[in-house]
Amino acid sequence: MLFSIILTIVILQRLIELMVARKNERIMLSKGAFEAGSSHYPYMIALHVSFFLSLIIEVVLFDKEISLIFPYLFTLFIFVQLMRIWCLMSLGIFWNTKIIILPGANIVKKGPYLFMRHPNYLVVCSEILVLPLMFNAYFTAILFTLLNFLMLSVRIPTEERALIEATNYSEQFKRGFQHQDIN
Q1: pTM over the 0.70 mark
Q2: Does domain 37-175 have CATH number 3.30.70.920?
Q3: Is the pLDDT of residue 11 over 60?
């Protein structure tokens, strides 16, 4: 029952995020933005859909129980969800599930982006590990952590290359993290 409730909430959250991403994409494209890395995007979607299917199959088919350390993992999971919201709010219309780049824009350097380049990817990595561990779904946790690292090994360089070519990304990281926001 607890698994169903948590999973339903997470899936609804993802569906809402996809709607926000589509809205942001329309806004950004209307301002002259372009999409980078579109060739790997279908694989990323497949990875995330497969993650949820694997999690459901492993927990339901193998009758997995909640972890003995569930309260700690759930606390970490809630923290990760708060980080996710902080990332989305910090990026505003620049947040997307696709790599959408607005030429000439200044990069966002507020919220968690003051401290690291890609905090949203840290959130995704953490969630892909923690959510299955809450229900002892070790196969899903290990397999999709590895697959996600493989995906990010393509996605992050693609995103950074596009940011370097079209924004002030490399200039900002030469100077280090200063208090500059995108406007």
Answers
A1: yes
A2: no
A3: yes
